[in-house]
Amino acid sequence: MFCDTHCHLFREYYDDIDKVIAHAKENGVHRMIVAGCSGKSNQEVLLLTLKKEVYGVLGIHPEEIGNSTLKDMGFIKQNLTHPKIIGVGEIGLDYYYNKENKEEQKKLFEAQLGLAEEYHLPVVVHSREATLDTIQCLEKYKVKGVIHSFSGSLETAKIFIKMGFLLGINGVLTFKNCNLKEVIKELDLHTIVLETDSPYLAPVPFRGKQNDPSKVKTIAEFICELKGVSMEDLAKITNENIKRIFDI
Ligand code: NI
């Protein structure tokens, strides 16, 4: 039994979310952590946690900075004690899409890191072309969590691991010419969790199509082949990893 530690099961992407969850379960993926990105999607996350299989994290994504309000931050804060809201995310820095608002991004990121620290919750971090600033922001707070969609170097991986973070590994690993394969070969399996980032980043051979949590199975099979472990062992280890970070 696997868990998809990062997906966006929102109505704008899926017509029938119950069907998506049922399909995931048929493929051995029995739990999903849905990550909010905006005021609107955070409300959807909260509703989705009514489903037995779904846990949620709430946060404002750096790309949503222009669309977010104080009210959205208030909503996050209000719901951080909800039993199925298990973290703050997806939060972080993205200098790929926007380099002009770095200071604003850092301010929003740190405000949410502060919330996570205050509520003793883990964080789910988005970091794109912003590794150094991400590390500097994280170092200011007493938080642990997951570096979502990790695809950095072995050196960067070791820094995050030392800071108490797990690395979220998704379909990017299966892409041709992806250096992450070499990094994963060197890493202990106790440092990773599996995710899809659905509806994005579908693994090979589904690349370019809409992703869904069932594809954790494809990613897991790929890692088993790479590391020479069984699916059972990978499930056991990654589930233990999840429990070290999340109250799930
Ligand atoms: Ni995401």
Question: What would a concise description of this structure say?
Answer:
Helix content is 40%, strand content 18%. The protein has 248 residues and is α/β, with parallel strands linked by helices.
Strand content: 15-25%
Biggest sheet, strands in spatial order? Answer: 1-2-3-4-5-6-7-8
- What CATH first level would be assigned? Alpha Beta
Q: Level of helix content? A: 25-40%
Total separate domains: 1
Quick check: average pLDDT?
A: 97
Rg calculated over all Cα atoms: 17 Å
Say what the CATH topology is.
TIM Barrel
CATH superfamily: Metal-dependent hydrolases
Low-confidence stretches: none
**Class inferred from helices and paired strands:** alpha/beta
SSE run: EHEHEHEHEHEHEHEHH
- Main β-sheet, in a few words? 8 strands, parallel
Bound molecules: nickel (II) ion
Q: Total helix count? A: 9
